[in-house]
């Protein structure tokens, strides 16, 4: 049944791509990022494009061309309807670049909200998804990097994904994993105070990646740090290369481990896990034999330490 539902989702998305939206975007409030928190009800924090900042047509977060609006309700639809729009425009979410899921969904399922975002608000299946203990906190940050406030969190996720230390998950992944009865690993953001200059805040408040969580059965479960997240990605074969830290001659070094392969075996009825990989230093050169052995042991410790 779930496979049938997933097939219907894909068919529906293909049909939508062939339909032109006749609505003039000038009459829409364009959402670039949306954060959804839950505590006995839904709280939606949306970052909107606004032409009021610098007076130009260029979107520039530093010129306050991105504004935050908030709505609450018993359902996600009600919360979206209650977004504090003063100009009478209708919410437009087909171009939303980021969905942030709040920690309250460790108790409440977000599946109904995801269906609302896709079927009613027509969010793209390619919309990236992450989580945070307080999703709204992420929308309060005024990043100085990037043209819009959603670009910095996205770049954090994409850069970490390229390094093999974070997943990159979108709405389609959530639907596909749900249909297959498997959890979705999603990146987790947290607010910290070590980013002076990265945001407009004088006290250096910014967001950083702090690992990941599973979305399983519509609920957030688990809480994995960066090392654990990397191990999960390797063991689930979602990445075969990472930047690896290791010690050699009492000195901490970094190399790239690539072509990583997990070997699962059983000896005398006892399951064992091993790993093989190739290594190169930061300049692309080959490691010496003894140093490669140190890197190999560090990789094995990482993978087995989950």
Keywords, please?
single chain; 306 residues; alpha/beta; 2 domains; ten-stranded mixed β-sheet; three-stranded antiparallel β-sheet; 8 helices; 13 strands; elongated
Structure notes:
The chain has two domains: 2-12 and 28-231, no CATH class; 240-304. The protein has eight helices and 13 strands. The chain has helices at residues 2-17, 76-81, 111-120, 135-139, 151-162, 171-179, 226-235, 289-304; strands at 28-38, 42-49, 66-73, 90-92, 98-102, 128-132, 169-170, 184-192, 206-216, 219-224, 241-248, 251-267, 270-281. Strands 1, 2, 3, 4, 5, 6, 7, 8, 9 and 10 form a ten-stranded mixed beta sheet that branches. The relative contact order is 0.11. The model is unreliable at 14-20 and 53-63 (pLDDT under 50).
Number of helices: 8
SS-derived structural category = alpha/beta
Uncertain residue segments: 14-20, 53-63
Largest sheet: 10 strands, mixed
Strand fraction equals 25-35%
* Straight-line N-to-C gap: 33 Å
How much helicity do the residues have? 25-40%
Radius of gyration: 22 Å
- DSSP strand tally: 13
